[in-house]
Amino acid sequence: MAGESSALGLLCTYESSSDSERDSGYTSDEDKKRKCDRSLSEDTHKIKRQRTDNNSMVEDMIVDSTNISVNKQSSLNNCCSNKSQDKSVDLHIKRNCIVIPLPNELTLAGPSHVDEGSKHQGRARTFPHDPGNWASIFYFPLNEITSAGQGMSSFSTLQNLVCSIRKCCKLHGLHLTASTDFHISLSKTLLLRLHMIQPLTQHVRATLTTMPSFTVWLNKFAVYVNEEATRTFLGLDVLAGHAELATIVGKLDHVLDTYQLPSFYKECSLHASVAWVKGDQRQLLNSLLPLLEEEFSSYFTYNDDLRAFNVLYLNFKAGNRIHKLQLGRYTT
């Protein structure tokens, strides 16, 4: 029993001891050398395997990167090919599409303005139509408000006189057209831009504050023609009140010069146009003046007030709008 216990103790001690302890106690030098060589061989084999694995990983990475580059190049080629195909398709579409033409209003200069003579009593325009210009004029109106006389007004008397002289001229082959509004012009026809109308109106209105009201008398017939000789006018010259009207014309000319606008005619022949005819008919109309003077005398022999008008205000017509400019009074 004692021998068995001793053997078991030695076995446990051997199993629990390290290799070095077992080698030192129970292994020869040749066994140790053999084990060492085997251990070195195993380590070398492990290193080689590790190197082989590393090399294979590097090769895989190279292959993968090559594949990636190839894939990228292939994608770029496909993209370029698609773009070129898209361009060719676009060109094909553009070549086959129908181009819609631009409207004439955008490509052409548009139709020029055409005046209808039937809407203007056959009158011809003396300056070209421009949508940005406003034909304007200063004048004294001869109407019911400014007319003098008691009972029959001077305005209604003037209307009757014009009817009589038209009949008289018609008998001699001259067809006169009655003026639509009787007035005494105090300026030429002005072409104004829209932004000029309001300041010019205010300027003239302030200028007229020093002018008191007065009365004008119509005297006798006279013949006039416009600058373009497109119309001939029959007018009544101003007798009394001519000096006052000439003063107003001078004030207007001074203001118009500030705006670089033309002044009134140098001769300053103030008259009321009561009828007109197309073309230059001065010779024929002058030959009829003695007959027309007889008609004039028959209307005003017994009552001179029937040819008088009170100058209370002036009119400034700009386009189709009329501004009333009061004399001797200015209100903002």
From TrEMBL:
GO annotation, cellular component aspect: nucleus
Biased composition (Basic and acidic residues): 19-45
The keyword Oxidoreductase belongs to this UniProt entry's keyword annotation: no
Pfam families documented for this protein: HVSL (PF09749)
Coiled coil: none
Catalytically driven reaction(s): a 3'-end uridylyl-uridine-RNA = a 3'-end 2',3'-cyclophospho-uridine-RNA + uridine
GO terms (BP aspect): U6 snRNA 3'-end processing
Chloroplast as UniProt keyword: no
GO terms, molecular function: 3'-5'-RNA exonuclease activity; lyase activity
InterPro entries with a match to the protein in the record: Usb1
UniProt region (Disordered), positions on chain: 15-56
Superkingdom of origin organism: Eukaryota
Keywords: Hydrolase, Lyase, Nuclease, Nucleus
UniProt protein name: U6 snRNA phosphodiesterase 1
Organism field: Hirondellea gigas
